[in-house]
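User: Assemble these into one structure.

Assistant: Restating your components, then the assembled model:
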Amino acid sequence: MSTMPTEGRATADAGLRERAVRVIPGGMYGHLDAAPLPQKFPQFFSRGEGCRVWDADGNELIDFMCSWGPILLGHKHPEVEAAAARQAAAGDVLNGPTKDMVELAELLVDQVTHADWAMFAKNGTDATSLGVLIARAATGHRRVLVARGSYHGIADWSARVGAPGMTPESHLNTVFFEYNDLASVEAAVAQAGADDVAAIVLTPIRHDVYRDLEPAQTEFAHGVRAICDRIGAALLLDDIRCGLRLDLRGSWEVHGVRPDLSAWSKSLANGHALAALLGADALREGARSVIATGSFWFASAPMAAALATIDALKAMDGIELMRVSGERFQEGLARSAQSHGLSVTVSGPPQMPFLSFEGDSDFSRASVWAGECAQRGVYLHPFHNWFLNTAHDTAAIDEALERVDGAFGAIRERYGTD
Amino acid sequence: MSTMPTEGRATADAGLRERAVRVIPGGMYGHLDAAPLPQKFPQFFSRGEGCRVWDADGNELIDFMCSWGPILLGHKHPEVEAAAARQAAAGDVLNGPTKDMVELAELLVDQVTHADWAMFAKNGTDATSLGVLIARAATGHRRVLVARGSYHGIADWSARVGAPGMTPESHLNTVFFEYNDLASVEAAVAQAGADDVAAIVLTPIRHDVYRDLEPAQTEFAHGVRAICDRIGAALLLDDIRCGLRLDLRGSWEVHGVRPDLSAWSKSLANGHALAALLGADALREGARSVIATGSFWFASAPMAAALATIDALKAMDGIELMRVSGERFQEGLARSAQSHGLSVTVSGPPQMPFLSFEGDSDFSRASVWAGECAQRGVYLHPFHNWFLNTAHDTAAIDEALERVDGAFGAIRERYGTD
């Protein structure tokens, strides 16, 4: 078991949790709420650097969540931070954008194969919802088809059916299908009305919570593209989690399938708040017609950060770096688990790995394991995919594997071998 | 007429507009789109400092839009920027918030009289929509009542009925009433069903586009509060535009009326992207129950900026500063117009002034005037309220008035006196 003193770790964090519960409903909310995680997970952090973060008590953790995606080049990447600071020193939120907005739009249009234009916002939800709005404006259709269990943000159309605050009307225009099941897409089209589908929304891979990750089948991707073409619906690829980690050209380029719209956010500016919707020319007039805006959407510092992020990623061939490190991590995890006699499934593209325990259908064993990892200085998640960043070098991966090996040992001690 | 060379001004801006139109639908979108404004308005900016901004061609303008609200203490306020940079140098977007989130929630709960808790997001739309979501979760009711013409963001429930991309279902649960007309609120309640109203949403003053600004009648504010109490609906005050400019305690404290929920954004962090929803204890469980989250919602640098913004605002009694400067500006505008024989209405609280020309129902004269102001180095808007910031000192106001006087002269030359 762990030799790190839990008491010492808990002090500042516990104090902040106690204060937070008074002034924040439930003490915290959303994906950063540590309440569903083992106690060993810190709720509050103090800093980050490269592939490491430090919690509020100063404990260092090798970070495999990367702030749930945004950190692509490591925390506080010097060139990105310098670019953002340079622009902030001139002006960030002004009465209009700076030239950075045009340059970033040009860069993305040049880089992402399907894209002829770009619009920018702040949240992932902004980008996916803007895509739906534009698809509706362009097609005159109402319905949106989404895969059951896929996460596309917190807007009503994409929120969980029946979740608190939803009304019976919230999903009137949302129809569900099963990921990687073309027949179910056809059934959803029939249910929606073939002449009333505005968009089919898909993540590039299946990365739902509480599941092993699953690639999109090439045949499925092509099939959805063909359906969209047949019924005059827009294919909206939600690249918010995968964008810039799998393929600079867009995450379905590997299948030879180009969406009409793609939504980007998270890693776009290495942690600076930014989202983008990219679109094809056929959707340009629809995009031009809609009302969409936000107080900080045109902020220049995040756009300068995005330009620097993409430049740096390209210069170092960052996707390949993450792939190699991720593969080393995945192989090491599998080996380590096996050496303890534990049956696990390691899934996901190497840049976005995940691990589950055999027969652990409620992910309780994964939770205990992730807590043991956190206590040993490795931050990863029991039921949501992880993320690599380019600062995960061989030494960091090996150090993480060594720490994780102790966590596997704790699981074997607690549950025995399979 | 102006003596500034339009050609010189146009060069960089025109070049950027030309590039933008290729990679951004329509060349720009949203509230920062300069297309509906006279050509003399620049689309692109390069920097800001205090109460001044510089366009992409280096022309200096005294800024009365303050980035449409966010800039409260002047562009690049040293203490705010230092606080944000200090936090960014440690970590901004991490795997959890830093202590800044707790401190900011504590500060807001302490300062805003109705508030017992706080949640944070990025956009104004996030905050108003989160308020509606929580009101629905807490009351179990569906409908939302909003004043016709009021802007509460771009989510479907609050978007313009029939705007491109809206469906017939978008406003099924939205019912409209007239601002400052209690009988129309009662009628809307009856239409919605008295037992099915989740929230009544109101701005603290009527600040719709294409209208003179209009204060809320105290009787109206109390009446809406009483209706909400009677039917078990939440009163949601949309303080996104007015917040921190009129009253630190919340903008309806002057009426002695406390909402159940209030939405804040824009000026909260002097230009750093942040939004907040504040709520009363009665809504705490509802708030706890909903699913609401965003990749950058827990970012610490904007929270550090917000703490510094509110500290600085209090230390300088910034609201009073803006009131005094705004009053000087309003009085000067009225005097200047009169001296040219022009009939105008100056409206709004001094911190958020506005001016319209008599009989100018399509705001065409206001547009020409605003263009003449822009050409002379004063940035204000023909059909949307303006904003003061605390960097507008007497000298800047007087300089602006002198420039604006020339614009009134141009209007007199073009249209004659009334």
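Chain B has a mean pLDDT of 96.
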